[in-house]
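Usage

Read records sequentially. Each one opens with the input sequence:
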Amino acid sequence: MFTTGTATDYNDLAERLHTFLTAKGSAFGLAYTGTGDGRLTDYSGGASSVAETFTITATSPTSFSVVGSVTGSIGPATVGTPFAHATLEFLISAGTTPFVAGDQFILSTAPKWTSLRRSRGCRLEATQGNDGTYAVQNLVDGKLNIWPFNVSGLTNRSWNIYTTVTLPQEVEITFFEPVTISAYELTLHDTTGQAPDDWQMQYWDGGAWVTLDSQMGIVFYNGIPQTFTIAAPVSATRYRWHITGLRYTQLHMGSLRMFRQADGVDACFHEYAWKAPGNDGTSEIFVGIHGFERQDADYYDWEIAGMDGWLAGSTFYQQVGFQGNLYLPLWNAAIPYWFVCDGRRAVVIAKISTQYEIAVFGLLEPYYSPGQWPYPLVLGGSMSHGEFSAWNDTDYRWSLSDNRHRIFTHADVGGAPVGTGERDPWDTQLRVRNLDGGWKAVEGSLADAITSTPQIYYHIIWPTRCGLSELDPGPGATYDLWPVMVMLGDVGNGYNTPGQLPGIALITGQDLSAETLIRQGAVDWIIVPNVFRNDRDDFCAVRLD
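and closes with the structure output:
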């Protein structure tokens, strides 16, 4: 199923995606045989969808029976009138040629996705240290002392004030919706002990700041979190860490976490995690997104992630089999979007200014049986940072114009350090989970070129790596849709092609423009360019089903 609309900003876009995935089951696989040329559109599952296939058969030019393989008969449906049931929704519209008895649509459904965690995050503003290398926003973006946040360029994961600290020092925490905080956790970043020792945690009651908790004489030790309980929690949107005393003369704080009373989740960290049910309704596919921003660098992004499972007590980055560091650059303004999903995968298309960002997360369309390749998880974004830019770098912004910023069907190593061996998993915009649970970076080009011969241990995208630059439309302006196949190089186990991207194809862009719809059978495909590029081999198509 798919939907389209306009979000107010990148945070609202995430909330809309969450609703799209979890409010209703999905409907997919639309097919049609018959005489009439009307259409079935606006289809989705319902709140009680299960894995089944529906046969929607015309009994007259204006009426259809609706029969599910599990649910049974739930019809009739009337042409021109929206059909709504707890397991299926759609609209059949008449065309020029009327339907006749026996005309038939086929449509499958899967249960809705399960929400594992939902937190819309917050925005911070301090008296000092709102920009630069050690900006206050670092406190809540989850950059803990774990890989990759403790290596090379990513060590700027803290809020540091090296100059004279103004007292009182305020850190205002503004949530995107009211939250009830029952405890909060603070962690020192380094070994110097440069931390506050006296403070109050406060909330805004609409007219004044009210103290929830007071602390005096606190001593922090490097990397050891300290948790403080709020005796009488309240629901509020605005909180404030009101610092009145320092142990020494500077501030070097690593993280601030504020725990919701309802479920213990850190409300400061912007994240969503889901379990997709599979199209069989019995699978467990674990994916998620993390929203992060820096106002001084003017970027507002998602991090796309996949996991092998989910532990409610673990953080986003500490989930088993976690793979991330793959981005969808967005902005803090209106975003036209297209969402597509079934029980196995989701696709997000976002229009930022005049360019297009796209993400995919879920399972490949497999070439192996589940017993042979049980969990062919794929993650695609439109930005990768194999060289790990510092968090205050504008390279995370949507306006980045080099090869780190490409859609995943045209993935490239960009500026990643390229050695003599296999790519690191975070080097490109497309990642595939291997049989052994490791992750492979897949590339469609090298420095925007397809002419070099790939090494046998490179993992490539066909036909991107072979090129569509000479491909024209067929007779009568017909367009072929080429499956996007993931081909893993020889890394000790021989070559493997585990599958193709789900509902995504390559297409020549000759005489096409962004957002053009191409109908194949009963379903439309939308044309998406490679971010801002418009060469005819820089386009893909996404099935709106």
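Summary fields computed downstream for this record:
- Residues 271-543 form one domain.
- The chain is about 0% helix and 45% strand.
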